[in-house]
């Protein structure tokens, strides 16, 4: 071989055999969401933090003297010494664990995203991290309360596994859509099947070879069906992507709501009061394991890329490839604008939800049971959002992006209503002043979150180039986590400096207007999304 010819890092999977997405593939993909919802939202997001704080409080000491057990005076600030290094407030343990988990997630996504795009690693990685999350949760449920430090480590494992699984799980969507069969275009497959397969094989081979060079940017642009805007199945793929994303989120939130309703019932009647948290963590973990079986058995995708390197070579080279993809993704205006808009949107939504919980508990006297009702109401309306947004899109004859823009116009009404209530010339009946207002805002945000998450995932899946799904959805998850972090930091600063929510309302309004501007810029580039 001549010295100036490089061996491609990626190789074509050979002559492409026709692969068509079937109902069995979609069932395997949707079934996994029925377990990841309760695990991610209810167990990792609610039960685990409560159990961690409960265990730490049992073995903590009062902050005032660092000697007296917290059980003597439960209402006073309680601290524990982590790993013999420093004293940490028991209410802050979750934030400490969450910050560490987020940092690990960002590092891991750059590696996992790149590796998942090779061979059939995508499904293997989802199953591997699912098992890791299940084992971590089972260990947490059986852990003695005095081992709260080990609980923190296991909680981080469970949280990281959940986020990584969600990122790779999302990357299946564009593949399932791309290989779906459109009956209206059957004549194309029948009359020109040979040339289509030949073109697909050539495109895959060329795209694979280009990944090893510095010319990935044009490949990303040309291999993206929607960015190219000339593919005959463009409108079919757009509609199907939105439908599958809506179904997936509906399953995700519906299964979560079922677990929440059962928990609220048991909590209200004080059933299994001492072991309710542990049993909840245990049951959600087992259900996640069961829901992963259809994914492992039925979900199949074509092997569009193989690698000439070993697994460890891929592992060590994954960061370089991820940064290369990140660099070129940022050079594509539509992808860049959408990711920044997504970051602002997640920041605003997360800040809003956190502000509701903190303000309601601190200033409105919301009880734990009322908090459970609030969370369950949010989940229920999120289901309505996943179903209502497609109906709204169809009735108004809007595109997916136009629907998101319409929602972005409506979202600022919530912080503006709260801001009006803080004005000196308004009465106490206006603004965020009661628990009823907390319920109303939660219902509004739940509906918006369900629909917006569905449509954002659908839009982004249409922007992805073939063969880069996992690493691009890892980037999508990183951007979302960045938005969450920005929102949490901003809320912490504003809540410490100001006692009222007025500055938070102003911050939310600015962030939401930035989201709207970004979406309008995206619409200028891509009217057909």
UniProtKB/TrEMBL annotation:
What keywords would UniProt list here? Amino-acid transport, Autophagy, Membrane, Transmembrane, Transmembrane helix, Transport, Vacuole
**Record GO cellular component, one term:** vacuolar membrane
Bilayer-crossing regions: 92-113, 125-144, 247-269, 281-299, 337-359, 371-389, 401-420, 432-452, 473-498, 504-523
UniProt-listed GO biological process terms: amino acid transmembrane export from vacuole; autophagy
Q: Where in the cell is it found?
A: Vacuole membrane
What is its membrane topology? Answer: Multi-pass membrane protein
Write down the superkingdom of origin: Eukaryota
Q: What does this protein do?
A: Vacuolar effluxer which mediate the efflux of amino acids resulting from autophagic degradation. The release of autophagic amino acids allows the maintenance of protein synthesis and viability during nitrogen starvation.
Which PANTHER family does the protein's record reference?
A: AUTOPHAGY-RELATED PROTEIN 22
Query: What does the similarity note say?
Result: Belongs to the ATG22 family.
Protein name, entry field = Autophagy-related protein
């Amino acid at each position: 071989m001549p010295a100036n010819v490089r061996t491609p890092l990626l190789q074509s999977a050979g002559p492409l055999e026709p692969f068509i997405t079937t109902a069995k593939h979609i069932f395997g993909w949707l079934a996994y969401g029925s377990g990841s919802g309760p695990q991610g939202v209810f167990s990792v997001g609610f039960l685990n933090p409560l159990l961690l704080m409960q265990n730490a409080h049992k073995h903590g000491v009062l902050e005032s003297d660092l000697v007296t057990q917290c059980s003597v005076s439960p209402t006073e600030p309680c601290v524990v010494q982590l790993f013999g290094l420093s004293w940490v407030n028991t209410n802050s343990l979750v934030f400490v664990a969450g910050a560490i988990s987020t940092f690990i997630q960002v590092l891991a996504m750059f590696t996992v995203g790149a590796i998942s795009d090779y061979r059939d690693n995508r499904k293997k990685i989802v199953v591997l991290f699912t098992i890791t999350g299940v084992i971590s949760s089972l260990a947490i449920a059986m852990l003695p309360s005095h081992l709260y430090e080990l609980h923190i480590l296991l909680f981080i494992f469970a949280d990281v596994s959940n986020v990584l699984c969600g990122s790779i799980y999302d990357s299946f969507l564009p593949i399932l859509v791309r290989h779906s069969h459109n009956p209206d275009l059957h004549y194309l497959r029948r009359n020109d099947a040979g040339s289509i397969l030949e073109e697909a094989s050539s495109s895959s081979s060329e795209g694979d070879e280009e990944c090893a060079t510095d010319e990935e940017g044009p490949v990303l642009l040309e291999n993206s069906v929607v960015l190219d805007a000339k593919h005959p199945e463009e409108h079919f793929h757009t509609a199907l992507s939105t439908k599958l994303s809506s179904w997936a989120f509906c399953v995700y939130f519906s299964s979560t709501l079922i677990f929440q309703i059962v928990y609220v019932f048991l909590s209200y009647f004080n059933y299994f009061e001492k072991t309710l948290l542990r049993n909840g963590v245990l049951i959600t973990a087992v259900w996640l394991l069961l829901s992963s079986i259809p994914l492992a058995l039925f979900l199949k995708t074509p092997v569009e890329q193989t690698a000439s390197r070993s697994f460890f070579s891929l592992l060590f080279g994954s960061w370089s490839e991820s940064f290369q993809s990140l660099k070129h993704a940022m050079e594509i205006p539509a992808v860049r604008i959408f990711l920044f808009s997504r970051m602002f949107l997640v920041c605003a939504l997360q800040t809003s939800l956190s502000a509701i919980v903190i303000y309601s508990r601190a200033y409105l006297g919301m009880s734990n049971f009322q908090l459970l009702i609030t969370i369950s109401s949010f989940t229920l309306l999120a289901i309505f959002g996943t179903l209502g947004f497609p109906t709204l899109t169809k009735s108004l004859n809007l595109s997916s992006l136009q629907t998101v823009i319409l929602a972005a116009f409506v979202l600022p009404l919530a912080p503006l209503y709260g801001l009006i209530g803080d004005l000196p010339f308004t009465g106490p009946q206006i603004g965020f002043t009661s628990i009823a207002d907390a319920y109303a805002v939660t219902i509004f945000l739940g509906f918006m979150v369900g629909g917006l998450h569905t449509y954002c995932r659908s839009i982004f899946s249409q922007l992805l180039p073939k063969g880069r799904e996992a690493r691009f959805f890892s980037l999508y998850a990183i951007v979302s986590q960045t938005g969450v972090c920005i929102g949490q930091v901003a809320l912490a600063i504003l809540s410490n400096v100001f006692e009222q929510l007025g500055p938070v309302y102003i911050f939310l309004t600015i962030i939401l207007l930035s989201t709207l501007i970004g979406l309008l810029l995206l619409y200028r580039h891509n009217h057909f999304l």
